[in-house]
């Protein structure tokens, strides 16, 4: 199966390891992975801030970048959802909208792709440790991927997964919200970190770099001994601590 | 701007909210209870999504034909002997209500809970002509006693107060002598208000739903105050926001069921009272005279726009009860009697962006509101639409943001520029980094790093790794 | 037309223009809704099953539940009134108190020192002032909703609104045949009357247990402005 990998801008700049793990994982599961090098950002920062004309240009670019792909697999539920949203940016019935629809149909978030398309729930990973998993809002509520990450994590040998209390609560990232409404965002991320601490897990996992950057940044600022990793890193691990 | 409450400056209101530990404790536990109850009530049905679909269909059909249904409603009410006044503004509504009251020479007004009368500042208008207006909903009563403290929630207006604060208010103002137990506080209010109900000349109610085909009005309550207000005084005035209407009783069933479940997790509240016209000749209790005031007050501006769905709202507050922003800042921070996600959508529409330009941004767009809305209003998407209007039509975004977004567009839709920019990131940020973390960012990064660390961009981007790996022979 | 309508044309024309309708309103056909989940609730339940649902729901709505036969109704009612310490009772002016033969009981109660008053729609003042001080308000249920535990009262003529509202406690006698699955059946009944151009009661009350409030810290307080306690007596039909 041929997969075109969508790294997302945060992944490219900050979380290269998550990307590497995802690529290795997909290959291990029998996919042939290519990386269209002209890909950029999904445009969500502009879209959510109300700059829709600007987003439209970004969307056109991304539609072109991935047009050749059989499948597009991204490592952020939020960015994948943004690609699905392109359909609404274009005029109804336009050629661009048709192309955006085609892109939507073949674009998946990593865990969603593994479970729903490859039909695999046990990726043969093993990792010794105690973790809790942050469900990001856009991935669960908007993209509708609720179960896939849990199915996969439950089958990781040696991993003890602890339920995160109030897991449906937002971490307070919200794109520009995190800087525009910094004081409110701070309260939200503090609450999230508190819930994570309550689990006494050593490791926080997530499938969205943006949430992890927010929560992780607050965790290190407060000097808490909790490690933060992208789910791909655990699914690709083969027994190392 | 009668809808407006509290301090003018948004940031001051937010800091005030965040630093109010009492309020935050009260809101947190209330949200938790209400969320659980709502979720249980929805789950119990087994087909909640179907109910929501039906609710959405009913609301959107009704609003699309609002003129027709209001026409039918008013015909029916008049046929039954009621008087209908259409008010384009709050002032017009208040003028009419004052006239009715003056004609009756009435002094004491008992009022059951109504957000629209808050919105048009009806109480103040009536007090100006020497009337005493008594709020009879327990929450509203508490606020009224406490120097007209504004409501912070559309269903539970005194949510921001804890029981100790309420005890102290009763003690100070009403010479209350008992404890802070809610049972004792409520019993005290029952006794106080009983006298008022019996003495009131005029009863004023809001309206949960009007039924066009029969000219009926449904009031959804738990305390029984709306029943008192409509059984005892000789004159009844019902004030409704013009969108609070359904075609027939079949539809009333659905919206009421959605409302009680979504608002408080009850199958039905203690009292759903459906009133049709003044009392009949052979009845003893009930009003002899009935007036209906239908209020626009900015609502028609919303019709025909991308925000029309906001008028589908049935005021259940489910969105408020799940909103994390509301949990931390409280209702008063919104500066509007309509707080939370629906308040952030509605307030700028009913008023304007000058007054409420920050509200559409007071959301992380987490979508919890959209997920629970019983009539499927896409609340978080409406907030994005507001942002778009602020940027494109109102041109009210900051210059810095416009420049940044313009730059963003240039960079991300050109593969080359994007590659250069991401390549530069580690070099530009190195001077600020320590242990691969940036703790004091330059310029716009400051707002981020004031609160959290930023990882130092890696020297080797993902794309560099992928390219190198392919050169070396690809997959392992 | 007995009433009046003010400012309507300008108001509705504005709405019509905004919505995008150009001509004066044509009659609107209500669409057929694509789903009807309300009709599936407790569908095909037998009367006895509905009674069970009602009994279970009463626990959630802080309402005492009693079941009796029409022959024992008098006895059960007496027990419940004693249980509630009812020294004064007001009941609605409803035929069914006669057909269920409760009048002799009311008369005999008077001799035991219990004050009993029948709502008199021709004497508002006495009726309300009695109701306001009464320990118990007593009515028959017109329709009873099993799902929510709701008594539906069509308040008209002798069925004063205040009987179920002002007294300290409220007792509803529920003939088993009045029990239906949910609100849907009650609203359909009213809808039918509306469609046939019949008058509906000026006040239709859906009463679900005693009054309550959660306005203080979202903690439930039972008994606010309306009755503080409520009881339903289910009775097999005459």
From TrEMBL, chain A:
It comes from the Bacteria. GO terms for molecular function: oxidoreductase activity. Residues 3-83, 132-215 form the Cysteine-rich domain. One of its GO terms (cellular component) is cytosol. GO terms for biological process: lactate metabolic process. Pfam families: CCG. Is involved in L-lactate degradation and allows cells to grow with lactate as the sole carbon source. Belongs to the LutA/YkgE family. This is Lactate utilization protein A. It comes from Gracilibacillus ureilyticus.
Automatic annotation (TrEMBL), chain B:
GO terms for molecular function: 4 iron, 4 sulfur cluster binding; metal ion binding. [4Fe-4S] cluster 1 binds at residues 313, 316, 319, 373. InterPro entries: 4Fe4S_Fe-S-bd, 4Fe4S_Fe_S_CS, FTHF_cligase-like_sf, Helical_ferredxn, LUD_dom, LutB, LutB/LldF, LutB_C. Keywords: 4Fe-4S, Electron transport, Iron, Iron-sulfur, Metal-binding, Repeat, Transport. [4Fe-4S] cluster 2 binds at residues 323, 366, 369. SUPFAM superfamilies: alpha-helical ferredoxin, NagB/RpiA/CoA transferase-like. GO terms for biological process: lactate metabolic process. It holds the Pfam family LUD_dom. Residues 303-325 form the 4Fe-4S ferredoxin-type domain. Is involved in L-lactate degradation and allows cells to grow with lactate as the sole carbon source. Has probably a role as an electron transporter during oxidation of L-lactate. Belongs to the LutB/YkgF family. This is Lactate utilization protein B.
Automatic annotation (TrEMBL), chain C:
InterPro entries: FTHF_cligase-like_sf, LUD_dom, LutC, NagB/RpiA_transferase-like. GO terms for biological process: lactate metabolic process. It holds the Pfam family LUD_dom. Residues 52-235 form the LUD domain. Belongs to the LutC/YkgG family. Is involved in L-lactate degradation and allows cells to grow with lactate as the sole carbon source. This is Lactate utilization protein C. It comes from Gracilibacillus ureilyticus. The lineage of its organism: Bacteria, Bacillati, Bacillota, Bacilli, Bacillales.
């Amino acid at each position: 199966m041929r997969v075109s990998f969508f790294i997302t801008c945060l992944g490219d700049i900050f979380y290269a390891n998550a990307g590497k793990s995802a690529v290795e994982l997909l290959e291990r599961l029998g996919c042939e992975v290519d990386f269209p090098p002209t890909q950029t950002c999904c445009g969500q920062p502009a879209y959510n801030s109300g700059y829709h004309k600007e987003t439209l240009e970004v969307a056109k670019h991304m539609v072109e970048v991935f047009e050749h792909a059989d499948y597009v697999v991204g490592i952020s539920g939020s960015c994948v959802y943004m690609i699905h949203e392109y359909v609404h940016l274009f005029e109804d019935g336009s050629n661009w909208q048709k192309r955006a629809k085609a892109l939507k149909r073949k674009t998946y978030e990593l865990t969603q792709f593994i479970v729903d398309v490859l039909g695999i729930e046990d990726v043969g990973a093993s990792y010794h440790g105690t973790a809790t998993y942050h469900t990001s809002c856009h991935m669960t509520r908007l993209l509708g991927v609720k179960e896939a990450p849990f199915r996969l994590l439950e089958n990781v040998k040696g991993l003890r997964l602890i339920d995160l209390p109030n897991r449906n609560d937002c971490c307070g990232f919200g794109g520009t919200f995190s800087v525009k409404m910094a004081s409110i965002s701070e309260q939200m991320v503090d609450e999230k970190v508190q819930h994570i601490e309550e689990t006494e897990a050593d490791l926080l996992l997530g499938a969205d770099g943006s949430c992890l950057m927010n929560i992780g940044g607050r965790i290190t600022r407060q000097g808490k001994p909790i490690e933060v990793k992208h789910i791909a890193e655990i699914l690709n691990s083969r027994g190392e601590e | 701007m009668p809808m407006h409450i509290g301090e003018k400056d948004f940031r001051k209101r937010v800091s005030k909210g965040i630093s109010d530990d009492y309020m935050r404790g009260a809101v947190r536990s209330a949200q938790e209870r209400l969320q659980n109850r709502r979720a249980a009530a929805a789950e119990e049905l087994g087909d909640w999504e179907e109910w929501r679909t039906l609710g959405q269909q009913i609301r959107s059909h009704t609003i699309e034909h609002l003129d027709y249904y209001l026409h039918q409603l008013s015909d029916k009410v008049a046929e039954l002997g009621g008087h209908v006044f259409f008010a384009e503004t709050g002032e017009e509504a208040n003028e009419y209500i004052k006239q009715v009251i003056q004609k009756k020479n009435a002094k004491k007004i008992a009022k059951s809970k109504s957000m629209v009368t808050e919105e048009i500042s009806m109480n103040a208008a009536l007090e100006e002509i020497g009337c005493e207006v008594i709020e009879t909903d327990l929450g509203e009563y508490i606020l009224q006693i406490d120097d007209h403290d504004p409501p912070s929630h559309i269903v539970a207006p005194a949510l921001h107060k804890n029981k100790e604060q309420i005890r102290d208010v009763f003690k100070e103002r009403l010479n209350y002598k008992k404890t802070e137990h809610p049972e004792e506080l409520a019993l005290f209010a029952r006794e106080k208000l009983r006298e008022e109900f019996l003495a009131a000349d005029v009863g004023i109610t809001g309206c949960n739903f009007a039924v066009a085909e029969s000219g009926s009005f449904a009031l959804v309550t738990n305390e029984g105050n709306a029943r008192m207000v409509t059984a005892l005084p000789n004159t009844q005035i019902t004030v409704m926001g013009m969108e609070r209407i359904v075609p027939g009783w079949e539809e009333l069933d659905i919206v009421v069921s959605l409302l009680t479940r979504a608002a408080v997790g009850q199958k039905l509240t203690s009292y759903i009272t459906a009133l049709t016209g003044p009392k009949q000749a052979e009845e003893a209790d009930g009003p002899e005279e009935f007036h209906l005031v239908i209020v626009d007050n900015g609502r028609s501006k919303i019709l025909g726009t991308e925000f029309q769905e906001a008028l589908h709202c049935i005021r259940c507050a489910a969105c408020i009860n799940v909103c994390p922003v509301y949990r931390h800042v409280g209702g008063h921070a919104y500066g509007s009697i309509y707080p939370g996600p629906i308040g952030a959508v509605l307030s700028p529409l009913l008023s304007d962006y000058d007054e409420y330009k920050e509200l559409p941004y007071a959301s992380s767009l987490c979508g919890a509101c959209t997920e629970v809305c019983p009539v499927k209003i896409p609340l978080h998407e409406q907030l994005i639409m507001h942002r778009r209007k602020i940027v494109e039509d109102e041109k009210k975004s900051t210059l810095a943001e416009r420049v940044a977004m313009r730059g963003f567009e240039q960079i991300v839709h050109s593969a080359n520029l994007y590659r250069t920019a991401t390549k530069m990131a580690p070099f530009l940020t190195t001077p600020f980094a320590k242990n691969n973390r940036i703790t004091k960012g330059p310029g716009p990064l400051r707002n981020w790093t004031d609160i959290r660390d930023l990882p130092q961009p890696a020297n080797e981007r993902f794309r560099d790794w992928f390219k190198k790996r392919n050169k070396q022979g690809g997959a392992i | 037309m007995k009433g009046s309508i003010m400012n309507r044309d300008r108001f509705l024309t504005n709405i019509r223009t905004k919505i995008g309708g150009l001509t004066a309103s044509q009659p609107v056909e209500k669409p057929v809704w694509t789903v009807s989940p309300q009709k599936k609730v407790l569908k095909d339940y037998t009367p006895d099953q509905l009674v069970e649902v009602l009994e279970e729901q009463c626990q959630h709505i802080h309402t005492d539940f009693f079941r009796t036969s029409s022959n024992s109704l008098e006895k059960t009612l007496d027990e419940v009134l004693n249980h509630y310490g009812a020294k004064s009772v007001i009941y609605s002016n409803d035929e069914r108190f006669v057909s269920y033969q409760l009048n002799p009981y009311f008369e005999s109660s008077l001799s035991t020192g219990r004050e009993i008053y029948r709502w008199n729609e021709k004497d508002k003042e006495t009726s309300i002032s009695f109701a306001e001080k009464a320990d118990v308000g007593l009515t028959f249920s017109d329709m009873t909703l099993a799902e929510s535990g709701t008594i539906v009262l069509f308040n008209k003529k002798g069925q004063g609104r205040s009987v179920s509202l002002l007294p300290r406690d409220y007792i509803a006698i529920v003939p088993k045949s009045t029990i239906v699955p949910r609100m849907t059946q009650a609203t359909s009944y009213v809808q039918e009357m509306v469609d046939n151009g019949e008058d509906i009661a000026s006040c239709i009350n859906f009463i679900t247990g005693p009054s309550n409030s959660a306005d203080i810290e979202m903690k439930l307080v039972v008994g606010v402005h309306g009755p503080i306690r409520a009881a339903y007596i289910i009775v097999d039909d005459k």
